[in-house]
Each structure stands twice: as structure tokens, then as C-alpha cells.
Amino acid sequence: MIQIEFIEPSGTTRAVFGRPGWSLMETALRSGVEGIAAECGGICGCATCHVLIDPAWMDRVGEPNDMEDPLLDLVEREPNSRLSCQVKLRAELEGLVVRVADHQI
After folding, report:
1. DSSP state of 11
2. Rounded Cα–Cα distance for residues 16 and 75 (Å)
């Protein structure tokens, strides 16, 4: 299991665990993290799972893919914005810190 630290829109910090290969979105939903709507179910068809990756982790997480990039233009995009459905857990992300965006569309 890989530990991820989610900061919910309320400011509450929640440490959760997910399996390698799960997405951040799936991990958040299974763990009851607040603020992620995930209306499309994780198929990269909306932007309701918008998160902000802690800047110190961006090199390990990586940049948005070609499907994700235009969807991020629909939200209040930051340089560290990602759709949590597109970030897959792997060992290098142990301890990742993620802030759930205040507003999902």
C-alpha cells in the first residue's frame, strides 16, 4: 500500500492508503476524502477530480497527458493542477501530498 496525504477543501489533512495502479481519484473515493466529485467515473471526461500536487512532488508525478490538458483549462488551473483520475499510484509516490481543489466544476 502507498500512503498519500490529501488536504481537503476544509483544510483537514487525511492520510490514506492506496494500491499501486489505483488512481489518486479512486484512492480518494475509497477513503472518503471530501471534495472530489468524479462525475465521469475516472475516464478523463470531466474535471470534477481536480487536485493540486504539492510542488515538491511535481517532477515525480509528471505533467498532464494530452487528454487531461484541455480539461484542466475548464478549472481554475494552477501550474501544479492535475486530474486525480490520471495520476496512477506507484512506489515513487509514497508520501505524496495532494490538495483537493476548492471548487470542482
Report:
1. S
2. 25
